């Protein structure tokens, strides 16, 4: 449990020191169990929202209550070729913001580092508020998602180059894996549009008027993020189509080879079939009939070879 008092100075405090009558606001970074304990003594959150902090694999969403806004968000990780959501929750009030997670979340750690070490931030240079901290978190989420989209695009680029060099069915598994990762990314990013629109509506007036302009920016960034995601989806479709086209071309080349081989051997099979019939054939009594038949087959093969070469089939 970490509790910070924020105004001009940032100070870590104990839970007993929280006083909403003071001209400060608070940031609490808690686990679900710690939230349950504090909710009994300090806050009066809806029990369903507290319970949701303990569940996993939820879709990102936002709910408005009389005195606070509740958000479910996913901080995405891309490790060892797998996109995995790292879920956390936010309670936003007029004088507090609470982040709840079962374990450390990268974005929350970055926020803590920036606040405590007084790193340069345009957002916080004009004063801090719970709404601005929420803006910071959403902005970092979007940047993180952009980074993952770029990494997946690089994977798709690499796959496309390998497919063009040597189309092989082993790339089917790589393409299916990539599509699955993009589906996970899409499932986590798509609800952000709904969150952005609802935060702008500010139904309960929790977001202060001075910060509402920041959420116009967030909405614009979310729309651009979704456009980038859709572009990635279309690109993967093109890579898959290129793979299918290359496999089809490879199959056609193989069928062409089989056809040419069959065309070479068909006349030879005809000749051997004729001379293999049980009838009196004049050539069988010739002294050089055997060599004649071999020469005929060689001549036919040569004619076919020259014909195929001129037609550029070989």
TrEMBL record:
Its main location: membrane. It holds the Pfam family CorA. It catalyses: Mg(2+)(in) = Mg(2+)(out). It is a multi-pass membrane protein. It comes from the Bacteria. It is found in: Cell membrane. The chain crosses the membrane at residues 257-277, 289-308. This is Magnesium transporter. It comes from Fonticella tunisiensis.
């Amino acid at each position: 449990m970490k509790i910070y008092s924020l105004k001009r100075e940032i100070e870590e405090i104990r839970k007993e020191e929280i006083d909403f009558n003071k001209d400060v606001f608070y940031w609490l970074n808690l686990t679900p169990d710690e939230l349950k304990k504090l909710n009994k003594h300090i806050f009066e959150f809806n029990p369903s929202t507290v319970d949701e902090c303990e569940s996993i694999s939820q879709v990102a969403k936002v709910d408005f209550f009389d005195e606070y806004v509740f958000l479910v968000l996913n901080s995405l990780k891309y490790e060892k070729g797998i996109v995995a959501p790292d879920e956390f929750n936010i309670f936003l009030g007029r004088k507090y913001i609470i982040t709840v997670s079962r374990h450390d979340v990268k974005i929350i750690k970055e926020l803590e580092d920036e606040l405590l070490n007084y790193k340069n931030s345009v957002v916080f240079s004009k004063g801090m508020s719970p709404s601005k901290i929420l803006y910071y978190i959403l902005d970092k989420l979007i940047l993180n998602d952009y980074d993952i989209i770029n990494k997946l695009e690089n994977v798709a680029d690499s796959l496309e180059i390998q497919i063009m060099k040597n189309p092989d069915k082993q790339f089917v598994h790589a393409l299916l894996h990539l599509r699955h990762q993009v589906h996970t990314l899409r499932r986590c990013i798509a609800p952000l549009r709904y969150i952005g629109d609802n935060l702008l509506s500010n139904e309960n007036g929790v977001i202060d008027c001075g910060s509402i302009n920041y959420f116009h920016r967030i909405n614009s960034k979310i729309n651009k993020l979704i456009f980038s995601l859709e572009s990635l989806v279309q690109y993967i479709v093109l890579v898959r189509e290129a793979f299918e086209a290359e496999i089809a071309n490879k199959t056609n080349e193989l069928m062409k080879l089989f056809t040419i081989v069959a065309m070479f051997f068909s006349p030879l099979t005809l000749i051997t079939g004729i001379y293999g019939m049980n009838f009196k054939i004049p050539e069988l009594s010739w002294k050089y009939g055997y060599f004649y038949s071999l020469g005929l087959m060689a001549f036919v093969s040569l004619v076919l070879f020259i014909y195929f070469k001129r037609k550029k089939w070989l």
